[in-house]
Amino acid sequence: MIEKINSIYSFFERMEENNILFSFHGEISSELVSSILAIVEANLENAAEEVRVKKKVYNVLVECLQNLYHHLEDVSVENKENKKLRTAIFMIGKINNKYTIMTGNYIKNTNVPALQKRLNDINSMSKEELREHYISTMAEGGHSQKGGGGLGLIDIIRKTGEKLIFHFIPVEQGFSFFELQIKIAK
Asked: What pTM did the predictor assign?
């Protein structure tokens, strides 16, 4: 039992060092997303921040959690027997006057190239190109199977003014772990 206590303390210390305000690991459901949003919203209301910063953090968080929920669903449908693949992680922290939202979830390797290309493409766009792409996507009415048209990631970059930081880590046959990090400056 002592080893477990030391390892959780070590984890606790790392969370303290990185000023992690909220973290979650497990299966994501729509009810859980609503609960997390309510908790983080309450914590942000109590934070000594400008209203515009609180709104930006909350809006980006909504996009991130919706992405987690919808894309975790893809893996869950095909892997009912493998609980690990249906789990995700989410953290929000604040270091040096920047909020950082981090998410991680499993993704089918067959989906990695398209997502990687999409992320690289939108990361390379200027503010004006992002705005134009957003407007044209809305005008075309192009919605994905999930109903969003892929506007969430564009919206995140537009709101934060920051590039998305991401990695794909091969973990299991047919699957990778997708890490996404978003910085939100004051």
From this structure: 0.84
